[in-house]
Design brief:
Shape: flat
Order of helices and strands: EEEEEEHEEHHEEEEEHEEH
Distance between the termini: 76 Å
Strand content: 25-35%
Number of domains: 3
Helix content: 25-40%
Largest sheet: 8 strands, mixed
Number of helices: 5
Radius of gyration: 26 Å
Structural class: alpha+beta
């Protein structure tokens, strides 16, 4: 399906189809383009697993191509759905689950998460603690006996485990695990993530928050033919370049071994 609108998000192209579906594309390897579906969940653009690959631009060409599109402004954040876990099952999200849940209300009220009393929960190997003031922190074990802790970020019904801030005062890993097993399971958010995989959507202050999408620049036939010829030439020459580099490295290695032997013979 031909995209109705196209946007730029970092090094990704976000395409919006006529039926509302979203698709991401990016560059990888040698003139290879990959892509997959996207889902909006609250303030987060969840980028689904890659569905395939095809021949495309060189990386510099792809990045130049992206400059033709306005910045993505449909969400405040983005991350790959593969990093998100289901709180209830502990498993990764399937595409079917994403399609169902993105149509539901996604952001619970803060009062539904923090109800004015100190509480502690279990989430995988993490202990999630909520203070009376509403601060949320995590604790977990690391190595043989180290107990560590850090901050938590909750955005759009997803709990993100932040980076380690310091060592926790607990001394015994065994006691920590024993206490952890007795805690109720975390159920204040539908999803969670083991790391702070959430990325902010960069905004250009010179652009309006509501951008009129412009059509991409279409290459003229002569320019397209030149770029195709250039790409084909690089693909044909690359094996020769790597072969020459390998021979050059082998020659230097041989000379170094010869000099090393000559030096040892001189000492002897």
């Amino acid at each position: 399906m031909i995209p109705q609108n196209r946007y730029r998000l970092n090094e990704y192209q976000i395409s919006k189809m006529a039926d509302g579906r979203l698709w991401w594309n990016s560059h990888t390897g040698f003139a290879i383009q990959i892509g997959g579906p996207c889902y909006i969940y609250g303030n987060v653009l969840l980028m689904g697993d890659r569905r395939g690959e095809e021949n495309g631009f060189m990386k510099s060409e792809f990045l130049d191509y992206l400059k033709n599109f306005p910045l993505w402004n449909g969400t405040r954040y983005y991350c790959f759905s593969s990093a998100i876990m289901d709180t209830a099952t502990g498993g990764h999200l399937s595409e079917e689950r994403l399609q169902r849940l993105t149509r539901l209300p996604t952001a619970p009220d803060f009062d539904a998460i923090v109800d004015g009393k100190a509480e502690t929960f279990k989430l995988g190997k993490y202990q999630i603690s909520i203070s009376i003031e509403g601060d949320i922190k995590w604790k977990s074990y690391s190595g043989i006996s180290q107990i560590i802790e850090g901050s938590v970020l909750i955005e759009s019904d997803i709990l993100f485990i932040g980076p380690k801030l310091c060592d926790a005062p607990e001394k015994s890993k065994r006691e920590f695990i024993h206490t952890l097993q007795s805690l109720p399971k975390w159920n204040r958010t539908t999803f969670w993530c083991r790391s702070l995989a959430l990325q902010p959507v960069s905004t250009d202050k010179k652009r309006s928050a509501h951008v009129v999408v412009k059509s991409a620049k279409i290459l003229q036939p002569a320019e397209r033919e030149f770029r195709n010829h250039q790409r084909k030439f690089v693909q044909e020459m690359w094996p020769h370049v790597t072969d020459v580099s390998a021979k050059w490295a082998s020659r230097i290695r041989t000379k170094w071994i010869e000099k090393k032997k000559a030096f040892r013979n001189k000492i002897d």
